[in-house]
Design brief:
With 237 residues, this protein is α+β, with helices and mostly antiparallel strands. Helices cover 35% and strands 17% of the residues. The strands form two sheets. A five-stranded antiparallel sheet has the order 6-5-4-3-7. The chain has a two-stranded antiparallel ribbon with strand order 1-2. The longest helix has 40 residues. It is flat and about 65 Å long. It comes from Penicillium citrinum. Keywords: Chaperone, Proteasome. InterPro entries: Nas2_N, PDZ, PDZ_6, PDZ_sf, PSMD9.
Length: 237
């Protein structure tokens, strides 16, 4: 018979700070392109590790012991714990990278305003006020992060006006900085079943030249006659 184990086996404590990719790095010294690359790398690894947990049928908070305190024998506890520890460290790294991405965006848009200088109105100089002031505002610039591959007829996506070939610039509060390989889009869909979500898209003009930006209202729902809550297939860019 095994030895009972404390239930907090499922909640390892990990020191904060950037620890991914081997030796610690200083995110504050990375350029914006490097920060974006690091963000994508972390999100890809988090997605892969999440699949490992899913294969065991557990999450970050699932208990690893039986009701009477013994280790579960239906999962590889050592692998699950190692995976969880790695994911916690990566999540800490992701927060650090996002912090400096936001600082970089602030600096970038402040520089844009400075280079634009002041606009003259009836001989009076007034400061320009263009440009976003936060990551949320920056998302309105709309760097596309996903593409609509297909849309089912009579689906919630079709009724909202989505078309194959559209690119997604915003999905609720999800944008190019925080979509985490579209996992945040999936979370937003699940959390808003039956409620309209603002979807910002970019669509090519029918003439083939130029694009148009649209703000659609998409309501995830079941029982529309097909699979899923949206009825469309999105792929990350």
């Amino acid at each position: 018979m095994g030895i009972p184990m404390d239930d907090d086996i499922h909640a390892p404590t990990v020191a904060s700070g950037p620890t991914s990719g081997g030796a610690p790095y200083d995110a504050s010294k990375l350029s914006m392109p490097k920060l974006m690359q690091e963000k994508e790398r972390i999100e890809e690894e988090l997605s892969a590790l999440s699949s490992v947990l899913n294969s065991h049928g557990v999450s970050m908070r699932s208990t690893l012991t039986t009701f009477d305190g013994y280790p579960r024998d239906d999962i590889d506890i050592a692998q699950v714990r190692t995976t969880r520890v790695r994911m916690i460290r990566l999540q800490n790294d992701h927060k650090e990278v996002m912090k400096y991405l936001e600082k970089g965006l602030h600096a970038h848009f402040a520089q844009l305003q400075n280079t634009q200088g002041v606009a003259s109105t009836n001989g009076t100089s007034v400061p320009t006020t263009n440009g976003p002031t936060s990551v949320a505002d920056a998302s309105t610039l709309g760097t596309p992060f996903a593409k609509v591959n297909s849309v089912e007829q009579n689906s919630p996506a079709a009724q909202a006006g989505l078309k194959a070939g559209d690119t997604i610039r915003g999905f609720g509060n999800v944008n190019w900085l925080n979509h985490q390989r579209l996992t945040k889009v999936a979370e937003t869909v699940q959390q808003n079943e039956g409620r309209a979500v603002s979807v910002k898209i970019e669509r090519k003009n029918e003439s083939g030249s130029g694009t148009v930006n649209l703000d659609l209202q998409l309501t995830p729902r079941r029982n529309w006659g097909g699979r899923g809550l949206l009825g469309c297939h999105l792929v990350p860019l």
